[in-house]
Structure prediction request, 204 residues.
Amino acid sequence: MPPTALWMTLTRTCSVEALSDSLIKLSTEEVRVNVIHKAVGAISESDVLLAEASDAVIIGFQVRPSVEARKSADREGIEIRLYSVIYDCINEVKDGIEGMLEPEKKEEVIATAEVKQTFRISKVGTIAGCIVRDGKMIQKSKVRLIRDGIVIYTGELGSLQIVKDSVKEVPAGKECGMSIAGYNDIKDGDVIEAFQIVEIKRTL
Prediction:
């Protein structure tokens, strides 16, 4: 539901006010519901034309559009939503607003590995011989290099290998070799922490 403007046509004055108030209360700092017109009666062609000028969705409660209004809406690409239950209307607009909200981003640690020994390879850089302590190390993960509890560097896993074979993942308890893309200052005893950013849908 891209636009936040609503054009409402309902059967009774009391329904107009009740539904209008309920929808406006769904507004947030990011998404504002704007009821630009409310009236009693059938949805007319003029309603469609005015909604088109305002980039609005038409909401009808216990009413129907005329044949001319429906044809005009199809022609102009105006959405008409018809409801018989007021809560269905409120819930659908609420779902539309929630879909427009920026999701919350949360960091989730997926693995930690301890660096047991480092190897410097010409034209490749530093390879860390590690043991995965927790979780599952996944190729191309975002990683942090931690030394004495302090984050030294944040970047991306460059390579992940078991012996000389590249692998997509290494579970806890397994030894592996890994590199950090574009970074070589890795030392014995460092901890490589892999993490991902997950998006959480926001609700009203």
In short: Helices lie at 13-24, 45-54, 67-76, 86-100. The two ends are 16 Å apart (CA to CA).
